[in-house]
Amino acid sequence: MDTRRVVRQGVPLWLLVMLLAGCTTTTVDEFRQGETGIESHQSIVILGRRQGSTYETREEFVNCVGDRVARGTGAIRVIPEQEFVDSLFPWFEPRTAPLRTSDLQALMEEPLVAGKIQEYGVRYIVWLDGQTETTNRTGSISCAVGPGGGGCFGFGSWEDDSNFDARVWDVSSFANVGTISTDATGQSYVPAVVVPIPLIARVEANACSSLATQLQQFVNGD
Amino acid sequence: MLAVTGNNMMTGRRSAKAVMLAGLLLLLGACGVNSLVVEGNYPTPAVRKIPLTLGLYFDEDLRNFLYIEYTETGQEEYRVASGQTHVQLFGSLLPAMFERVVVLDSMDDASDAGVDAVFAPSIEEFQLALPQKTRLDAYEVWVKYNMRLLGPDGAYIADWVLTSYGKTPTENLLSTEGGINDATVSALRDLASNFTLSFSAVPEVRDWLASKQTVVTN
């Protein structure tokens, strides 16, 4: 079959798929348990939960949320996760990190810990917990190379589902002041007519963006 | 247009030979053992210092600790040297936990060094799980240690076992060596946190600290 004809016939399919690939559904829920607000000299730290045996909250997602919370009109000063964890070593390691607000209260009785947290001006500790799972992988793509050239043909798709919770602890009252949950799903496609075209749904990026926007408003008390 | 002279042809042949030789070496290299010296940085613990002087002794087995990972056919696949990074870890950990730390070349030097006790760690077991074998998306390292605390005269004070675990996801890495290195550093960091916070809770250590009239609440 003539390659140009295949490409021509494939173009409408690509356009349709590209339109569909843009579809990511994101849901954000907020559960407020206390008043919030932050002053300009105060900061927050966003930490990933890594106690689970089946998954760990990815450092990249934690950094993504932190970067976005620190930007824009309601920007909040965010202490980088690794800097905070190293500075307070060994109290916030996966094996030793406080799991409840009462654990944090007990930890703050340690003068070195309380001093460092005060030094950073940390008002809220945000615990991020979650992961992105890939399911429903379907299709196949075959590629071949010959003396006259090479190419691929086929179609692959999969679904990504990002589920993350952000629990906000008020360091001044040792209370959980709220939880923000985000659930983002999206379908990715890779049609291949001579050349594979990956049409990736930015599921985790959307989850990060939505969660960060809501978290920023929540902490600012908007 | 390219004109090829006799000299250029000679150079071309030499280059082709060099490329073939490099290719051959690469192929041979792929069949050999991959050696790795673990390197990492460890944070200093934010804990209250115990007002005692500790001697720190690393025996040759710890200093030169080498783990060898074998293929399914029994061939050496990876040689992981983690002795020096263990020395580095304890060297940064213990001075943050004790008022004074003296590194001893020999256990015989302890009594002259004026130490209250000597700490001598050893590695009992080291396990490595590679994603190509486990089919998981992570490099994992598990280490079992025997921690010994001895009097300056070599008398027994305490002897306890600690385990540490570290993993690193495959998605972060470019090479298997990088994965093994990061998982080992993660396991050593886990050891450091566990050791720091559990040290004074070991019954024999607690009794020894009490005998020295030192109470540690970490």
In a nutshell, what does this entry contain?
The complex is a heterodimer of chains A (222) and B (218). Chain A has 222 residues and is α/β, with parallel strands linked by helices. In chain A, 32% of the residues lie in helices and 39% in strands.
Q: What is the level-2 CATH architecture name of chain B?
A: 2-Layer Sandwich
Largest sheet: spatial strand order of chain A: 1-6-5-4-2-3
CATH architecture of chain A: 2-Layer Sandwich
Structural class label of chain A: alpha/beta
Oligomeric form of this entry? heterodimer
Biggest sheet strand order of chain B reads 5-2-6-7-8
**What integer value in Å does the Rg of chain A equal?**
23 Å
Order of helices and strands of chain A: HEEHEHHHEEEH
DSSP strand content of chain A: 35-45%
Ends apart, CA distance between termini of chain B: 78 Å
What is the CATH class name of chain A?
Alpha Beta
User: What is the average of the pLDDT values of chain B?
Assistant: 86
Put simply, the count of helices of chain B is: 7
CATH topology call of chain B: Double Stranded RNA Binding Domain
Describe the main β-sheet of chain A briefly.
6 strands, mixed
Question: Strand tally of chain B, please?
Answer: 8
Strand content of chain B: 25-35%
Described by strand count, sense and barrel closure, the largest sheet of chain B is: 5 strands, mixed
> What is the count of distinct domains of chain A?
1
